[in-house]
């Protein structure tokens, strides 16, 4: 699995929502895979939900929020598709990893993505996007994630943005 770390400048960190929306659109443009945005902050989830609807004046980024903790671990095909298994939205916002998820993950939590995956969930992310803000706490969390992914043998890249 490839893990990309995006080290944000102060300007990008100040417009965090804008950068997340921009990165989401870029990921969708470059891939036909679904994108899961892991968010464990309810306020950030609600704000990002609104921001994705108005990212550009003439368009929006279609997405679906998985908020009900009672469906945690539910098969992605149940929550992400209609009865004919047609994909409803290419982007999911969720505080957990849905079962059988296969696609990209944009991680906004302090935990490495592998901590959200268990044998019962059977998720297989293809790529992880990690955001590192320019503050001491975020940098320390980023180092922890980097070491965690490195131990698992993942391919690691970083971009200064």
Radius of gyration equals 15 Å
Numbering strands along the chain, what is their spatial order in the largest sheet? Answer: 3-4-2-5-6-1-7
Give the strand tally. Answer: 7
Sheet with most strands? 7 strands, parallel
Low-pLDDT runs of 5+ residues are 69-87
Which class of secondary structure composition applies to the elements? alpha/beta
Percent of residues in helices: 25-40%
Q: How far apart lie the N and C ends?
A: 22 Å
Overall CATH architecture: 3-Layer(aba) Sandwich
The CATH class? Alpha Beta
What does this entry look like structurally?
Helix content is 32%, strand content 22%. By secondary structure, the chain is an alpha/beta fold. The chain has one domain: 3-Layer(aba) Sandwich (Rossmann fold). Helix 2 (16-30) packs across helix 3. The longest helix is centred in the C-terminal third of the chain and has 16 residues, at 136-151. It is globular and about 40 Å long. 28% of the residues are buried. Mean pLDDT is 85; it is low at 69-87.
Q: Main attributes?
A:
seven-stranded parallel β-sheet; alpha/beta; about 160 residues; Rossmann fold; single chain
Question: What is the structure about, briefly put?
Answer:
The protein contains five helices and seven strands. With 161 residues, the protein is α/β, with parallel strands linked by helices.
């Amino acid at each position: 699995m490839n893990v990309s770390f995006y080290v944000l400048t102060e300007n990008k960190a100040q417009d965090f929502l804008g950068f997340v929306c921009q990165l989401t659109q870029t990921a969708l443009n470059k891939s036909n895979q679904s994108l899961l945005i892991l968010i464990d902050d309810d306020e950030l989830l609600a704000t990002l939900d609104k921001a994705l609807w108005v990212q550009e004046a003439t368009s929006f980024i279609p997405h679906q929020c998985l908020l009900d903790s009672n469906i945690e671990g539910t098969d992605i095909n149940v929550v992400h598709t209609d009865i004919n298994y047609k994909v409803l939205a290419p982007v999911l916002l969720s505080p957990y990893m849905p079962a059988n998820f296969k696609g990209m993950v944009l991680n906004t939590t302090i935990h490495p993505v592998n901590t959200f995956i268990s044998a019962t969930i059977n998720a297989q992310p293809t790529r992880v996007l990690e955001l590192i803000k320019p503050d001491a706490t975020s940098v320390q969390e980023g180092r922890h994630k980097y070491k965690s992914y490195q131990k698992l043998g993942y391919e690691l890249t970083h971009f200064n943005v």
